[in-house]
Amino acid sequence: MMLDTVAHLRQLSPWLKPGAVYVDAVAADPNDVDVEELGLLDGLHGQARHERAELVRWLLARGFGVDQIRNEFSPMLLPAIRMIGDDGTSVSAREIAESSGVSLELLQRLHRAVGLVCAEDADACLQSRVDAESVLGAARLVDIGLDPAQVVLIVRLLMDGLTGAAVTMRHAALHASLHPGATELELAQAFEVLAHDAEPLLGPMVDALLRLALRHSFETEAINAIERAAGTLPGAREVAVAFADLVGFTRLGEQMPPEDLGLLALRLAELARTVVESPVQFVKTIGDAVMLVCSDPRKLLETVLDLVDAVAADDFPRLRAGLAFGPAVNRAGDWYGSPVNVASRVTSAAPAGTVRVTEAARKAIGDPAGIEWSVAETRRLKGIRGEVLLHGARRPPAAELPPWGDESVT
């Protein structure tokens, strides 16, 4: 049935039109089905009931079972879900472990890492086959010598990143398919065609991007002589850490629709990625803030100043940034250590439109051409013991703001 559907869509996808009903040539006539007796329309009335009945007849004709339709949160997505691998069969963890040769214990750890339900009874058929088998490739990493705990961590991090990407792809698909007055059946047909066209692109896309990230990870961290001699993982490094955030973002949240607020944060992240060049690393976004790291504090400061200039030239709220320097460790793609905490606090204390730099970072940066320093001042920062000496950095010619920025906007 799956092969028939794919072949059918290959022929029809260029010509599928909203409002038309397409059924397989071998399917039963959907008009012969009494949908009212199946209990699939409960709670629906009027136009919604009519549309669901129309959708159910079409799904039944496409080979979907009554239980599948009943158990699916959004039945109109069933054809698209099938197109990306779910054939509707359920399996147990033990069945997958025995057929693949992967230990049951490792399989269940990997299942939990990707968010699948793990029953106490390993013989319970709770997962779709495609979901249960999705971690088998990762399990093979143990066979080539990787520590199982590290493999579980890798899988969890991949799933964390891919989940956000998948949600965004779903949103993009909805945007591409929705039109005023679309019925459930029309959307189901549109989603199926879109899934069919996108499915062969997914594997190569994710593969290429993962390889890109892996190559860059090799470029940005080396193992020093002491670590080679001891046979230990890379430890703490002297790095510069910077945060930059939008001033007044919380107030904007009370004035702007959530969608527009989210787009504003995304635009900041896009601008940051635009100005970042190796060896500076874009680490992550945290709400309206971006985090950057670099072993060269001078290069990081130049990048932060570039970001401040880019934001000032765009239609953005004003930006503030803080930069600190010291030992930090990279684990699972994130950074931990004193400069991370200090840089975050410095950013929160920086006036709008300014960049603040700690004393340690100021000494490490020196006096490069093209950067002006303002008179230092000491500040008490939340969560940081004692007073912290901060320097202001900017590019000449002097900005319209005083050297320490607009103190009235925080």
Describe this structure in words.
The protein has helices spanning 2-12, 46-61, 66-71, 78-83, 93-100, 104-113, 129-132, 136-143, 148-177, 184-220, 225-230, 249-255, 258-275, 297-313, 338-349, 359-365, and strands at residues 90-92, 125-128, 237-246, 281-286, 289-294, 319-331, 334-336, 355-358, 372-373, 377-380, 387-394. The chain has 410 residues and is an alpha+beta fold. It has two domains: 1-219, no CATH class; 236-394, Alpha-Beta Plaits (2-Layer Sandwich), CATH 3.30.70.1230. Strand 4 and strand 5 form a beta hairpin. It is globular, with a radius of gyration of 27 Å. The model is unreliable at 1-28 and 404-410 (pLDDT under 50).
